[in-house]
Design brief:
This protein is an alpha/beta fold. Helix content is 41%, strand content 21%. Strand 1, helix 1 and strand 2 form a beta-alpha-beta unit. It is globular and about 65 Å long.
Length: 476
């Protein structure tokens, strides 16, 4: 009986793929009273808007995205999808707050050719910068994404485009995050050909094309994946909030006779030859395999006694805390610009990472709804060790007033401090994860790991991580 630790999106997905492949029953163990992990939607049926505490949109492009769309189709959620199309402001307009004003990022070839308020030169010049920049003096295993972009495309692009983008992806510092993990294709082109643009050109002419992922061919041909491509979705969500996804997954698991235990904390893991003993709330359960979709530091606590070196490797993946502040105003015309929102470069030294314009992205019943993301890599620097939700709300409203000129008092707010919620893919992350998985294999442990700590923070990433983990087990 395989046991899955963690009832977030990755753990539920792992249980789903297991239930399709295993004859044995599968069990999901979740320490809290709810499923879904950091995916949490709070609709207000009376006023007709939604607060999202975690992710709210999914990207539809690429193999991992096709896998997610196939899963949504399997769950019968096709009619619940809310796409955003390319012409929509939330798809076209992304902004950066820097030097005391908002700047619109170029989103077309014409915009790339023109001088903008954010960059010293037209962005097209960054292409020439890469073409003229010398090859790296030595082959590198990895480096910070900031250093790579600055070296190839100039400091302006690194500071005002890539750094805020990393804040949006993982609430992290681009000067610490691994280029090999987040931009491996571009990094390898530079290392092989001496430049990114040169590598793209020569690679397309003489390089070997990657063969399609065999396990994802069916996903890429699913009806929903085809529809997303034909209609040109930019991003999408689900009616009633993204939490509909894990709820539907949980419902399907029950149909597939998967046992789901909530309020059931795993206290310890022991391994005997090819078996594992899982201590769940004081009771021991034997299993032939454990899949951990827990944060890596929580898994480290479970294996510390028997495998301290593995625990040390797991703890080497750092995490950051993010405060999420949802704000709703009864007026619908408070924003001067229609956009997805804006991000803030770390060089501005502000406590906010960015603001999402939820009511521009989706219908919020003529209300203005915003989400302020705060802290991340710099949480304790700005807020101390134990900030109050009152202080965090005050800080969020202060910056909404300063940046977006909103003077009104919100009708409803929600403040959540998500402790250690996002793993940081610091330099060497790819090797770090490889060492963890190699240790598990080398020691013959009936254990596998999946989720954001290892394979990426996005919704598509954690679901594909779960699928590939299950496939690797069932192919053995």
């Amino acid at each position: 009986m395989p046991i899955v630790l963690g009832g977030g999106l990755s753990g539920l997905s792992a249980a789903y793929y297991l239930s399709k492949r295993y004859i044995q029953p599968v069990t999901v163990v979740e320490a809290s009273k709810r499923l879904g992990g950091w995916v949490k939607s709070e609709p207000d049926p009376e006023k007709g808007f939604i607060f999202e505490a975690g992710p709210r949109t999914i990207r539809p492009k690429g193999p991992a995205a096709a896998n997610t769309l196939e899963l949504l189709e399997d769950l019968g959620l096709e009619n619940e999808i809310q796409p955003i199309y390319p012409h929509h402001p939330a798809a076209r307009v992304r902004m950066i707050y820097a030097r005391n004003r908002l700047h619109v990022l170029p989103s077309s070839l014409g915009g790339v050719m023109k001088q903008t308020s954010l960059f010293k030169e037209p962005l097209i010049n960054s292409v020439f910068h890469d073409l003229k920049a010398p090859r790296s003096s030595q082959l590198l295993d990895d480096e910070p994404i900031y250093d790579f972009v600055s070296r190839r495309f100039g400091n302006d692009v690194a500071q005002y485009a890539i750094s805020p983008m990393i804040c949006g992806i993982c609430a992290g510092d681009a000067k610490e995050i691994s280029v090999r993990f987040l931009m491996n294709d571009l990094f390898e082109k530079e290392q092989k050909y001496g430049g990114v643009i040169k590598g793209m050109l020569l690679g397309s002419l003489f390089g070997k094309r990657k063969s399609p992922d065999e396990s994802l061919k069916k996903a890429q041909n699913s009806n929903l994946a085809k529809r997303a491509k034909e209609e040109g979705w930019s991003i999408y969500s689900l009616k009633g909030g993204l939490e509909q996804f894990p709820r539907a997954l949980a419902g399907k698991l029950v149909e597939n006779n998967v046992e789901i235990k909530t309020n059931a904390e795993c206290k310890k893991l022991k391994f005997y030859n090819d078996r594992a003993v899982v201590n769940i709330s004081g009771n021991e359960h034997e299993t032939d395999h454990v899949i951990s979709a827990l944060p890596s530091h929580k898994l480290a606590n479970l294996v510390q006694q028997e495998h301290p070196s593995l625990a040390c490797m797991l703890r080497s993946i750092p995490y950051v805390t993010v405060a999420v502040v949802n704000v709703q105003y009864d007026l619908c015309d408070l924003l001067e610009d229609e956009a997805f929102g804006f991000l803030v470069p770390p060089s501005e030294n502000l406590p906010i990472l960015g603001v999402i314009f939820d009511s521009c992205c989706f219908n919020m019943n003529r209300k203005t709804v915003l989400t302020v993301m705060m802290g991340g890599r710099w949480f304790h620097e700005h807020f101390g060790l134990k900030p109050s939700t009152k202080d965090i709300l005050k800080t969020a409203l202060k910056h909404l007033k300063n940046i977006l000129k909103i003077e009104e008092t919100p009708s409803k707010t929600a403040v959540r401090i998500l402790e250690d919620c996002i793993p940081q893919y610091t330099v060497g992350h790819t090797a770090r994860v490889e060492n963890i998985r190699n240790y598990i294999e080398r020691n013959g442990l009936p254990l596998a790991v999946c989720g954001a700590a290892y394979d990426g923070v996005g919704v598509n990433d954690v679901i594909l991580s779960a699928r590939r983990t299950v496939e690797s087990l069932t192919q053995c």
